[in-house]
Design brief:
With 110 residues, the protein is of the alpha+beta class. 20% of the residues lie in helices and 30% in strands. It is built from two helices and six strands; from the N terminus they run βββαβββα.
Length: 110
């Protein structure tokens, strides 16, 4: 399982939570606009309860942070729902780091 690439000592304090037993996984191909995580198998994930901020300056910082967490890694995800475009509204993990909580903890999600 890939390890989280820590970019600072603050990342050692990221929220950690075990992923649920029933989960899916995929390798991240890209992080698209609005924080949509695009997987190699063409699944598109939206982080549940962790929307990127609308303010342009904060958005760039949040998008960069999200990309640093998930880019070119294998993520595990639990689907809550789908949106009108067929994207999966999900809880996402990299290892034991809960990405949704990590964005909120750093103030990068609303």
């Amino acid at each position: 399982m890939p390890m989280l690439r820590a970019d600072s000592d603050a990342d050692a304090a990221l929220p950690r939570r075990d992923p649920p037993a029933a989960r899916r996984w995929g390798r991240v191909a890209d992080v698209m606009e609005d924080g949509v995580i695009y997987l190699e198998d063409a699944e598109r994930l939206i982080l549940a309860d962790a929307a990127l901020p609308p303010d342009p300056d904060r958005y760039v910082e949040a998008h960069t942070y999200l990309s640093s967490l998930v880019a070119d890694t294998i993520v595990f995800y639990a689907v809550r729902d789908t949106d009108d475009l067929g994207r999966l509204i999900s809880e996402v993990w990299v290892g034991d780091v809960h990405v949704n909580d990590a964005l909120r903890a750093r103030g990068h999600a609303t």
